[in-house]
Specification:
The chain is an alpha+beta fold and 269 residues long. The chain has 2 domains: 4-132, no CATH class; 138-262, D-amino Acid Aminotransferase, Chain A, domain 1 (2-Layer Sandwich). Helix content is 33%, strand content 17%. It binds adenosine-5'-triphosphate and magnesium ion. Adenosine-5'-triphosphate is lined by residues 24, 76, 78, 82-83, 85, 131-134, 136, 141, 157, 197, 209-210, 212, 219.
Length: 269
């Protein structure tokens, strides 16, 4: 689980305001107690004797409906930190598109990721982050690894999948991500070690999808924690170029372990 400081710094309601000009439009809504109960104890018997907070409920539901409508009627929903990606199968076309409150309840109650957060995290108020739904090409998403405020590693989030254009466009991808990071993110995020997920879409400007903690549990896709961790103890020049690591050849279906072993000797500087 994340440390309390991580929970706070990486919660979308703490970073959204500062980065809203470079991320997807999002509406943040605090989760009131009565709705929280609906999201965590879906199969628990309702206590009929409890007074039904009808008014409170109706007000909250209105707020949610208005939010969904103002985001073009389709939203991507997250809690402070995570999306219910493990509930994808319950959505039409695996899109995790939500267009009403029932969709949100369904995704959240069937997602182990979300339920784990809701049952284990104490002392941080939970929120719903309704984000404008956008079709994102899997090859356009990059996890960028920032160490001591320097962008050191770039990995496709769709890994290990072979994309032929990465070889030719690699230098441009590195340039665009480095410039975007240096101009828009560096020193603005309150941590010096973290990951930031960035979408490169042409001809639009790049945008941030999410920030996340950098630790042994972070999914680093093409990189391993073993090679990243030592870099956190070393200072490095500001102008060092990041390593963009991707599959260079199409060698059929590969496991993550197979793919990583290919890079055993391509050390990071
Ligand atoms: N607004 C959106 N519209 C459509 N799809 C989205 C949207 N935001 C994210 N996705 C898709 O869902 C995936 C998971 O989203 P996201 O990265 O926000 O989840 P996460 O829980 O923070 O993941 P991780 O735990 O790996 O950091 C993304 O890789 C992207 O493909
Ligand atoms: Mg994330």
């Amino acid at each position: 689980m994340l440390e309390t400081k991580d929970l706070i710094d990486f919660s979308i309601n703490n970073w959204y305001e500062k980065f809203k000009h470079i991320t997807l439009e999002t509406i943040l809504i605090d989760i009131p107690d009565h709705f929280f109960k609906k999201l965590v104890c879906a199969d628990e018997d309702e206590d009929e004797t409890n007074s039904d907070p009808v008014e409170e409920n109706a007000e909250f539901e209105d707020k949610l409906k208005n939010a969904i409508n103002s985001l073009d009627k389709n939203v991507f929903v997250k809690n402070n930190w995570h999306a219910p990606v493990d509930a994808r199968v319950f959505s039409f076309g695996n899109t995790l598109k939500a267009s009403n409150i029932d969709d949100i309840v369904l995704y959240f109650t069937t997602s182990t990721i979300i339920q784990e957060d809701f049952t284990s995290i104490k002392g941080v108020p939970f929120c719903l982050a309704l984000r404008k739904w956008l079709s994102i090409h899997p090859a356009a998403e990059f996890r960028c690894i920032v160490i001591n405020n320097v962008l050191r590693g770039i990995t496709p989030r769709d890994w290990p999948t072979f994309y032929a254009h990465f070889k030719e466009e690699g230098p441009e991808i590195i340039d665009r991500l480095t410039n975007f990071y240096n101009e828009k993110i560096k020193s603005k995020f309150p941590r010096k070690n973290y990951v930031v997920d960035i979408v490169l879409s042409y001809p639009d400007e790049p945008f941030v999808l999410d920030f996340g903690a950098l630790n042994g549990k972070t999914n680093l896709y093409a990189f391993t924690w073993k090679e990243i961790q030592p870099l956190m103890r070393k200072e490095c020049p500001e102008d060092v170029a990041p390593v963009f690591r991707y599959l260079e050849t199409d060698i059929g279906i590969m496991t993550r372990a197979d793919a990583l072993s290919k890079f055993a000797r391509s050390q990071m500087v």
